[in-house]
């Protein structure tokens, strides 16, 4: 059950003529964004009538009635099945999945959509309890906008073994990326440190004082507008491939955050970066045998690649 806090206050003369979202922020201590959400949910009443919009004006002496539902913990894992997540492999130690676009790996303060850990909980998987509460069992991550193969630890032993393997860089991570233009040379290594962007906190950039980051690439196909690359990550920084390709002036097709051409993105029908985790290889934490798991291109990426192949 969601608890709801009902509050009623007269509007002081000092707020006469103010917008209702501004008045709510002053009177009830909520953000204007939260105030707008409550208004949109018909939870705000002014002098007995529902408020029509956040820019409606209040009068001194009017009575504001607000119902404020308690907000859910943004880091709480909510068990819910997520359409499109495929189980590639499952045993007592690990579960390997094919993650679709639009799914985060675990909950975070800025994300309210579906998550991998929520899906696994909803599907009845028992995963490792090592790690922070909202990302238990998580030994690697893929961006919300990146699809493909990833492994999650189910046992505590598997968690520590895999966490160490990723730290020691003994895991083989292979991606395919469709990038604009033609990298020169056709294969090479980008060794450039990555840090948080100085102006936009949702982005990363090549920064002198950033963390050591190494990306190896080779061209699989070269077409008129774009090249299909196979990429091996030596390190695993957030947005690493996207940042390094952008730094080379060959951003992933569709990656508007990192400088991709919006006209080309529309032409190939992409609403996200063309980047897919195609293969993951590592020593199995229980058997020590080398195992490898693969994921084929999802429909949106396959379609975009065909458009690029057919462009003359």
Folded structure, characterized:
- By secondary structure, this protein is an alpha+beta fold.
- The protein has 3 domains: 4-69, Roll (Structural Genomics Hypothetical 15.5 Kd Protein In mrcA-pckA Intergenic Region, Chain A), CATH 3.10.290; 73-168, Pseudouridine synthase (2-Layer Sandwich); 169-312, Pseudouridine synthase (2-Layer Sandwich).
- Helices cover 21% and strands 28% of the residues.
- The strands form 3 sheets. Strands 5, 6, 7, 8, 9, 12, 13, 14 and 15 form a 9-stranded mixed β-sheet that branches.
- Helix 1 (20-28) packs across helix 2 (32-40).
- The chain is globular, with a radius of gyration of 24 Å.
- The model has no long low-confidence stretch (mean pLDDT 94).
- Residues 94-247 form the Pseudouridine synthase RsuA/RluA-like domain.
- It catalyses: a uridine in RNA = a pseudouridine in RNA.
- InterPro entries: PsdUridine_synth_cat_dom_sf, PsdUridine_synth_RluA-like_CS, PsdUridine_synth_RluC/D, PsdUridine_synth_RsuA/RluA, RluA_PseudoU_synthase, S4_RNA-bd_sf.
- One of its GO terms (biological process) is enzyme-directed rRNA pseudouridine synthesis.
- GO terms for molecular function: catalytic activity, acting on RNA; pseudouridine synthase activity; RNA binding.
List the helices and strands and how they pair.
Layout: E1 4-10, H1 20-28, H2 32-40, E2 44-46, E3 49-50, E4 63-69, E5 86-90, E6 94-99, H3 116-122, E7 147-153, H4 156-167, E8 172-180, E9 187-191, E10 194-196, E11 204-206, E12 214-222, E13 226-233, H5 240-247, H6 262-268, E14 275-283, E15 290-294, H7 299-310
């Amino acid at each position: 059950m969601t608890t709801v806090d009902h509050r009623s206050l007269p509007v002081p003369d000092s707020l006469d003529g103010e917008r209702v979202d501004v008045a709510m922020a002053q009177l009830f201590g909520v953000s204007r964004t939260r105030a707008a959400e409550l208004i949109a949910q018909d939870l705000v009443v002014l002098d007995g009538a529902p408020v029509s919009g956040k820019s409606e004006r209040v009068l001194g002496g009017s009575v504001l009635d607000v119902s404020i539902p308690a907000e859910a913990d943004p880091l709480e894992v909510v068990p819910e099945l997520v359409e499109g997540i495929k189980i590639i492999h499952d045993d007592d130690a690990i579960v390997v999945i094919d993650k679709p676009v639009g799914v985060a790996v675990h909950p975070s303060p800025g994300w309210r959509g579906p998550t991998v850990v929520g899906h696994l909980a909803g599907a009845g998987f028992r995963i490792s309890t090592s790690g922070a509460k909202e990302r238990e069992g998580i030994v690697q991550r893929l961006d919300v906008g990146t699809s493909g193969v990833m492994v999650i630890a189910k046992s505590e032993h598997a968690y520590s073994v895999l966490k160490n393997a990723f730290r020691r860089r003994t895991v083989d991570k292979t991606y395919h990326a469709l990038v604009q233009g033609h990298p020169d040379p056709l294969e090479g290594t980008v060794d450039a440190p990555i840090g948080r962007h100085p102006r936009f906190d949702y982005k990363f950039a090549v920064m002198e004082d950033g963390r050591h980051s190494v990306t190896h690439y080779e061209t699989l196909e070269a077409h008129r507008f774009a090249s299909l690359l196979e990429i091996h990550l030596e390190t695993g920084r957030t947005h690493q491939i996207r940042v390094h390709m952008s730094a080379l002036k060959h951003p992933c097709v569709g990656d508007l955050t990192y400088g991709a051409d919006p006209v080309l993105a529309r032409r190939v029908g992409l609403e996200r970066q063309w980047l897919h985790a195609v293969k993951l290889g590592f020593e199995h934490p229980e058997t020590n045998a080398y195992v490898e798991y693969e994921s084929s291109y999802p429909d949106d990426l396959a379609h975009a690649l065909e458009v690029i192949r057919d462009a003359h």
